[in-house]
Specification:
This protein has about 425 residues and is α/β, with parallel strands linked by helices. The protein folds into 2 domains: about 170 residues, D-Maltodextrin-Binding Protein, domain 2 (3-Layer(aba) Sandwich), CATH 3.40.190.10; about 200 residues, Periplasmic binding protein-like II (D-Maltodextrin-Binding Protein, domain 2, 3-Layer(aba) Sandwich). It is about 50% helix and about 15% strand. The protein has 19 helices and 11 strands. The strands form 2 sheets. Strands 1, 2, 3, 4, 5 and 11 form a 6-stranded mixed beta sheet that branches. Strands 8-7-9-6-10 form a 5-stranded mixed beta sheet. Helix 2 packs antiparallel against helix 15 and helix 18 runs antiparallel to helix 19. It is globular. InterPro entries: Bact_solute-bd_prot1 (IPR050490), SBP (IPR006059). Part of the ABC transporter complex UgpBAEC involved in sn-glycerol-3-phosphate (G3P) import. Binds G3P. This is sn-glycerol-3-phosphate-binding periplasmic protein UgpB. It is found in: Periplasm. The complex is composed of two ATP-binding proteins (UgpC), two transmembrane proteins (UgpA and UgpE) and a solute-binding protein (UgpB).
Length: about 425
């Protein structure tokens, strides 16, 4: 009698183990060296254990990934894990398609995440909705070699110093002293955050869906007008003004001497400069007389989508646990320039003896930037249809860059059109409680 019982117990154990194993998909939107790092982590996870198998599927961009995931969810063919970018935060929170990561993994010390990486993806009450992953912030890059050739021996820290350096570069014959693409994330969101300026009322939407845009009335409007005038003077160039037609490529090739760009761009710039130029990276510049505050986290986080069985959720939890390991964050930082997101990963970098190594430069500077003093207006952006608003902002400001309207009119138009989006979003979710 004992043998059949033992066999039955053995079969039961096997069935439980089998039930807990799962093959799942993770959809992401990155390309280039970031995609290579993601695929490496996926392969390493599969090699590190035999309970689960993950297939990581690139979608080409954040926007495409977001659209495909929502369509797949409606068709019940969605992945277990999906990477969503910062601009889509409120849309995905109210979609009813995801489960807050704190509910999935209640045992995790979520307070161990650095404040700047956590606040963007948490509810108004402080619950983390997604696990921060490829987290970046805005940094200021210079071609130190070219600046020194123009007589600039100290890295500029303020906009006034940048323009002073740009004039010296221009006088020395440099055609592209400072370059930008005028992107919403860089020239509006990150600028407003570190200068403690509201983008919208209700603390950028955290306090209610009835928020209204306010950026056209703040110092951000003056900064954007300055950029237009500096371009006319030949001190600032747009991506379209460069030979490369791409402002990051123009900087990496030595065509332009200064730029502000994501910390995630550091690895590519360092590789491109090689032994030809010396690269510097620092916190994004301030205007003189303004107190520095935290920059926003950029990049994306990972959400757990609803509608999956227990085994698939267990696989998702295992993968999220794997990515959270300090050594995995250290690898990702070194490979991409994205910053680590937990305090224990920062401690591990310090303990490694390589904290001052170029491969961890963005970790030091980026975290310092995101950990500057915060205000209720620097937690993040919690505004509906924000992806569409970014398109509107770019459309209107491009007209100002082209001289078809003043920058102030462009910003007023963008705010007005943006408010129409907010009212549509508010009507769509009129019976939904803001998380």
């Amino acid at each position: 009698m004992k043998r059949p019982i033992l066999m039955a117990l053995g079969l039961l154990t096997f069935s439980i183990a089998t039930a807990q194993a799962a093959d799942i998909e993770f959809w992401y939107g990155n390309t280039g060296n970031v995609e290579e790092a993601i695929q490496k982590q996926c392969a390493d996870f599969n090699s590190a254990q035999s309970d689960h198998q993950i297939t990581c599927v690139g979608q080409g961009s954040y926007e495409v990934g977001m659209q495909k995931a929502i369509a797949a969810y409606r068709a019940k063919r969605h992945p277990v894990l999906i990477q969503f970018f910062d601009a889509g935060t409120l849309d995905i929170m109210l979609s009813d398609a995801v489960v807050p990561v704190e509910d999935i993994l209640p045992e995790v010390d979520w307070d161990g995440y650095i404040a700047g990486a956590r606040s963007y993806y948490e509810t108004s009450a402080g619950k983390l909705f997604a696990q921060p992953y490829n987290s970046s912030t805005l940094l200021f890059y210079t071609n130190k070699t070219q600046l020194e050739e123009a007589g600039v021996t100290e890295t500029p820290e303020t906009w006034e110093e940048i323009i002073g350096a740009a004039r010296k570069l221009k006088e020395s014959g440099h055609a592209c002293p400072f370059v930008t693409d005028g992107d919403t994330w860089r020239v509006l969101e990150q600028f407003s955050a570190r200068h403690a300026l509201p983008i919208a009322s209700k603390h950028n939407g955290y306090d209610g869906l009835d928020a209204e845009y306010a950026f056209n009335t703040t110092f951000a409007a003056k900064h954007l007008s300055n950029l237009v005038e500096w371009r006319k003077e030949g001190l600032v160039r747009l991506a379209t003004d460069t030979r490369a037609g791409d402002y990051t490529a123009a900087f990496n090739a030595g065509e332009c001497a200064m730029m502000e760009q994501s910390s995630g761009s550091y690895a590519a710039a360092k590789e491109a400069f090689g032994e030809t130029y010396e690269l510097t990276a620092a916190m994004a510049p301030m205007y003189e007389g303004h107190e520095r505050h935290n920059t926003f986290v950029g990049g994306a986080s990972i959400y757990v989508m609803k509608g999956h069985d227990e085994a698939e959720i267990e696989a998702a939890k295992a993968f999220l646990d794997f990515l959270r390991q300090p050594e995995q964050q250290m690898f990702f930082t070194a490979a991409t320039g994205y910053v680590p997101v937990t305090n224990d990963a920062l401690d591990a970098i310090t303990a490694s003896g390589e904290a001052d190594s170029p491969k961890y430069l963005t970790a030091k500077i980026g975290v310092e930037s995101m950990n500057q003093p915060g205000t209720p207006d620097t937690r993040g952006i919690r505004l509906g249809f924000y992806v569409q608003f970014r398109e509107i902002f770019m459309e209107e400001t491009q007209k100002a860059w082209a001289g078809d309207q003043t920058m102030q009119i462009a910003l007023d138009n963008a705010a007005s059109r943006g408010n129409e989006l907010l009212r549509r979003f508010q009507q769509t979710y009129r019976n939904v409680q803001l998380p």
